[in-house]
Structures are given as C-alpha cells and as structure tokens.
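Sample A.
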Amino acid sequence: MKYLLLIYQKEVELTAEARDECYEESGRLLRELDVKGWLVAAAPLHPTTTATSVRVRDGRRSLTDGPYAETHEQLGGYFLVDVPDLDAALEIAARIPGARKGAVEVRPLIDLSHLEATSLLDASATA
C-alpha cells in the first residue's frame, strides 16, 4: 500500500549545517528503502516563501503568495513509499530526521488504478 509521509517542522530552526546533516541522514534512509523496493519518491521542498496558493471561486482563479495556511510548522518535504502495511510506514516515519524536531504525518493514498486516466481527467474537469 502506498503512503505519503509529510514532513512538518519550523523552517527557521535549521541551520545550513543541520539541513545538510538532515539531507545526508535522509539519503541513507532513502537508499535503504530503495534496496527494499519500497521507495516511490521523496524530495525536500523550498521554503514557504516560494509558495503560491491557488484558489478558484465562481470560476475565477486567485493567487496568494505563501502557503495555504498559517501554521506553527511548515511542510518541508515528503517521502512516498509503497510498503506492506501501516506499521511499516509508521516505522519509516519515525526514522525520518524531521520527526525529531517536528512531525511526520502518515497518510494512505487512495488507489485509483482501476480508473482509466481519461476518466480521471474528465472528472477533474467537471469538479
């Protein structure tokens, strides 16, 4: 089953040195997951100052600089894994360096593989 592990922490807490150490530790974990065949994707995100939020109301698009919501901790990156069960996803989440200073939210993905890609596109156009 696929799980998205969302890494939240305060952006201002990490020094450049701490960020590099985090990337190195995460890289070791990613290599281990890749060897097991559990890694789908992972990436850190640029700071929230680079974010743009998009909203559509009454058919009109509006853009706002910054993240969707003001929070104490910001979304800093993600791991997308395909593991046997929730316990495996939770074990991985606990090993992500960001879990020690912030939180890692573990969310299962809804499997839509039974739908054809064109029907997904049609559904999103009418939503």
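Sample B, a different protein:
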Amino acid sequence: MKFNSCLWICRAILVVWAGSASAQSQVLISEFMASNTRILADQDGDYSDWIEIHNSGSIPVNLADWYLTDSDTQLNKWKFPSVSLDANGYLVVFASGKDRAAAGAQLHANFSLAAQGEYLALVQPDGTTVASEFAPQYPEQLPDYSYGVVGGVNYYFAKPT
C-alpha cells in the first residue's frame, strides 16, 4: 500500500515538472529594437532599446528568476522579478541600463543593446539553460527597425509588431 501511494505522488510530481518544462520551452525573445529613436518611449520619456518576450504556450509562465543577457559568458546578467506572462502573452523589457525589476512596474534591464550587433539571450531560472538566443550575435540594426522571429525565421520589421 505504501508503495502505491509513493508511486502516485511521484507520478503527480513528474506531471507537474513536465508541464513546467514544456511551458518554459514556449517562452522566447520574439522581437527587439537595438536603436530606438522614436518608436516606444519608456515611463521616463526616454527612447530606450527594448526586448519583447513571448509565451507561445497555452498556460501562463511565471518569469521569476529568469534572466536576460547580452553576454554569452554571463547568462544571469539581469533577473526578472515575479511576473506572470499569460498564455500567448507578450512582455516588453526596456534594455536601458536603468536596472529596474519591480513586479507590476515597467521593467528595465541593466544593459542596453548594441546597434552593431551582439549576443542576446533569455535564460531559464537555472541560470544555464538558454531558452532563446541570437547567437553568436544578431546582425547590425537600423534605427527604429525591430528585429525578431516569425515562424522560426529572423526578420527586420519596419513597423514593430
């Protein structure tokens, strides 16, 4: 009887873990702008670089302890606060260098993006598993054009989505 109870509990834990892993694999960097001069202003009125995160999954994902980075040698550069990303939802994080990570407020990474191109990644809470990346670096960016992924292919967007 004890064995059956343990087996049931172990199966329940495995189902929860598997659901969490598949939800995490659905979160990615869908678009970014590394040379924002007039498209999207932050709360301070600054036209900072920005990164859009998309949850293409069917369940919400809490981004607590996920990371954004512009360094392939420092994957845990900027940590997300506890913020839920709805199923099929989007979230903009400004890459302004302002380092603001308060849940419920506008998010600002502690780095900005290089218009000439650099590494960019979204990293899962373990600090080592890359969920989404532009590697070894994204191409040179044009002012007020965003760059992102559609159907697994990278594009420039004259009108950011």
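Observation for Sample B: The radius of gyration is 18 Å.
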